[in-house]
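tokens incoming
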């Protein structure tokens, strides 16, 4: 018997504000601490930004780090451009996204899949579990494209 792999979405759910949800938009069945840790770490931290020098960067700004100015001055990549990461036992892809119910700056979407997965598996899980996210992107003319961080 195959193990069930948990798929989650973090982002705007047809309204302003970022939420961590399971398929269908309901609250995910997760331990409270994991739900808190994921939500706290996800908001815009993994979506790609481009520095003035053209380098792709991501992550929360560490105000004490030497790279603070570079991160602060980096610009969001176009909507739909994403990076794939590992976090707390999940593979995730995250992109800047103003198509899900909030058009303000810094809006982002994230798909998380329990375990380690390829980009194709991540996109497949998105299509199966959160098809309306793809429909909203398509209506806005936004295509999901992986960018290289190297």
């Amino acid at each position: 018997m195959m193990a069930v792999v948990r798929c989650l979405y973090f982002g705007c759910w047809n309204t302003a504000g970022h939420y961590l949800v399971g398929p269908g938009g309901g609250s995910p069945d997760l331990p409270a601490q994991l739900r808190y840790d994921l939500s706290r770490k996800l908001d815009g931290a993994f979506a790609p930004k481009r520095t003035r020098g053209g380098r792709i960067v991501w992550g929360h700004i560490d105000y004490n780090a030497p790279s603070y100015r570079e991160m602060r001055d980096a610009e969001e990549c176009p909507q739909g451009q994403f990076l794939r990461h590992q976090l707390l036992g999940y593979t995730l892809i995250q992109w800047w996204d103003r198509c899900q119910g909030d058009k303000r700056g810094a809006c982002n979407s994230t798909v998380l899949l329990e375990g380690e997965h390829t980009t194709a598996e991540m996109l497949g899980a998105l299509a199966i579990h959160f098809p309306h996210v793809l429909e909203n992107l398509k209506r806005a003319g936004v295509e999901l494209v992986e960018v290289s961080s190297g």
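note: The first strand starts at residue 7 and ends at 11.
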